[in-house]
Amino acid sequence: MTTYRRTRLALATALWLGLRANVAAAQDTTTATLLKVLGEAVDGYRTGQPVYVVAAFRSPYPVYGVFSTRDSATSALPRAGRGYSVFGPYVAPLDGPGEVRYALSACPHYWPTVYKCPTRSFAVGASRVDSVRVTVFVRSGPPQSTTYPRAEVDALFFTLSAIDKFVIPYYQRLLGAASADSLRRGFVQGFYAGGRSGYER
Questions:
Q1: Which residues of 19-164 form beta strands (DSSP E)?
Q2: How many whole angstroms from its chain centre is CA 180?
Q3: Please, are residues 90 and 66 in contact by the beta-carbon 8 Å criterion?
Q4: What pLDDT is recorded for position 155?
Q5: Tens digits of per-residue pLDDT, 85-123?
Q6: Residue pair 94/48 in contact by the 8 Å Cβ criterion
Q7: CB–CB of 111/121 below 8 Å?
Q8: What strands lie across the sheet with 51-56, from one edge to the other?
């Protein structure tokens, strides 16, 4: 078994043991889905330090946020709304030595259908990231830009095709076909109706 698979198994086991008291009365499918959602939320914070997840105890179990202390998670409950609870603490092991790294690794789509993913062009510690800015230069008119504060973005998808390949299958496995379909409709609206996708915050 690879180190990655052992890490994911250990994290899933820890989540299961920590959640039994919270979900003892829930149905098996509800418990399994909630565990998967919490596990994926924690996996996004591979710091080696305890984190607390504020999530709703109802399908599709939306996650309001992940916090470094129980007090900060508890203080977020009024903003999250009714039906949200604090889960944790949970720990996701580090990927490697030091803190989480931010790196650029683009995968250009070369003709006809071959993705070329080069090695990273830079990498910095997440604690050093002030913001991430994306600028698209168009042939006529001003550039289109957006900025994400701090290290809050893990990946960027520029086309609906890429979302269909990499994002929708993930949410189908995590939340089921109906939730993934609803999410995709939000993306389509964001791309073609001038609105914001359901995934943006």
A1: 51-56, 63-67, 84-90, 101-103, 109-110, 114-115, 123-125, 131-136, 144-149
A2: 14
A3: no
A4: 85
A5: 999 999 998 888 878 888 877 777 666 666 667 656 778
A6: yes
A7: no
A8: 63-67, 51-56, 84-90
Query: What is the enclosing helix (H) or strand (E) of 31?
Result: helix 28-43
Q: Which of 64-68, 122-126, 156-160 is the most confident on average?
A: 64-68
| Residue 168 backbone dihedrals phi, psi, to 5 degrees | -60, -45
Q: Which two tokens stand for residue 61?
A: 């179990």
d(CA 84, CA 150): 25
Task: Indicate the helix (H) or strand (E) that contains 21.
Answer: helix 3-23
Query: What number of CA atoms fall less than 13 Å from residue 51's CA on the CB side?
Result: 23
Q: Distance (Å, rounded) from C-alpha 8 to C-alpha 35?
A: 12
Long-range contacts of residues 171-177, Cβ cutoff 8 Å, at least 24 apart: 174/33, 174/36, 174/37, 174/40, 175/33, 175/37, 175/60, 175/61, 176/33, 176/60
Q: How far is it, in rounded angstroms, from Cα 64 to Cα 58?
A: 13
